[in-house]
Design goal:
There is one protein chain. By secondary structure, the chain is α+β, with helices and mostly antiparallel strands. The chain is 20% helix and 29% strand. It has 6 helices and 15 strands. Strands 1, 2, 10, 11, 12, 13, 14 and 15 form an 8-stranded antiparallel β-sheet that branches. Strands 3-4-5-9-8 form a 5-stranded antiparallel β-sheet, with helices on one face. It has a two-stranded antiparallel ribbon with strand order 6-7. Strand 11 and strand 12 form a beta hairpin.
Length: 290
Amino acid sequence: NFPKRPTPPPSIPPGNASITAPNIRHSGGSHTHGTPPRSTRDLCDTTAPAIRPGPTKPVLPDRKAEHLPDMTRKEENTEIRPERIYAAHDTLLVVTPLVRVEEAAPHLTDDDLARIGAFTGDKRRREQASWRSVVRRFAGTAPIAYTETGAPYLRDGSRHIGVSHTHSQAAVILSDRRCAVDIERIDRNFPRVAARFLSQQEAALPQSHEALFLPWMWCAKEALYKFAGRKGLDLTEDLRVIRIEMQSGQLTGAIRHSDGTWREYPMHAFTEMGTACVWMTDTATAPTRP
């Protein structure tokens, strides 16, 4: 049997010029484009609560707050760190500053502490302590293992998880479905490496002049790569963003699968406190261009 001939990548539909949303201020920091997330850390007891939909009452009353579809924000009353928790249906996303190992220790298992102790750098230890404490607080104490691509997962399969971190913040997504998240500072020099992750079609999107276009595209490609869970994928040839709406924070990403077909996935982006974040869950459309 001969392998199937790869199908061409999804074409990018023509779009209208995007509308730049005004800067929005709220108690968690500056919010520029997109909406707070619905693809994962607060101080609570070690018993993992069930993932439930967030409250129906909008936290920010006016439309300019631009909440992500079907997700509302939960404010955490803590003076230790301004942790942000977002919930929608069967998915929870938590964005938090990195914490010291001592702060996270009450929520960590012995195995967590052993893994963290294997790292010599303080930043890596803080990253591990931060995201693991979130998983423990919201998904219990199931052993954490790693896939061949280095992605963490819960061995008991009780929740799917995705992890990302920047110099000072971490994002963890927990869902009943396959999921992925990426977070990055918006002040990185994205133009310098744009050719490595943008295809010519993506670079020609009408939103490419927007200040947050490159940070969102970078995070989208990283989230798609994590979600695909396969080694050797090319950021420009095997992963595509075929639609991006700067005002609503909605994107459509596409992954070329091993059989050569492409499948499209809804993605969601927002910018807050100097970082861009893109997340996704396994709510794929039908296979495209078989």
